Amino acid sequence: MALFPQDVLRGSLNSPVMIEVKNGETYNGVLMSCDFRMNIVLKDAVCTSRDAEHFNRIKQCTIRGNMIRNIRVPDDTVSKAVQLVAAEQASGRGRPGNFRGGRGRGRGGSGRGRGDSGFPSKPGSK
User: Fold this and answer.
1) pLDDT at position 29
2) 99 within domain boundaries
3) Would 15 be classed as within a structural domain?
4) Into how many domains does the chain fold?
5) What segment(s) does the record annotate as region Disordered (predicted)?
6) Is 30 among the domain residues?
7) Is residue 45 part of a domain?
8) Please, which pLDDT band fits residue 93 given cuts at 50, 70 and 90?
């Protein structure tokens, strides 16, 4: 069973986390939500400056996923994430192992692909 970073984040919902962003600031707060791009919403966060001299209390903040350098979660989060993924797979939700999604059928598919278009290839031939 594969465990992805988003699974670990979902396992740590409503628990305290520490997030370090690329400019050196750190945010300590309660993880309220996260999405597939790792955009994160924290509640009751404390923002610490790079030099650790300035502290700001923020009631709610959103951190963009591509700005995150490091996330620290509680120790029991990984076991929660494993249980969540196992429960999703048992109920038929989540990511099945043989899923081959996509937008189209590829080349060929329904007999309308290359060389089998249903039309004669040369004028006068059948």
Assistant:
1) 96
2) no
3) yes
4) 1
5) 87-126
6) yes
7) yes
8) low
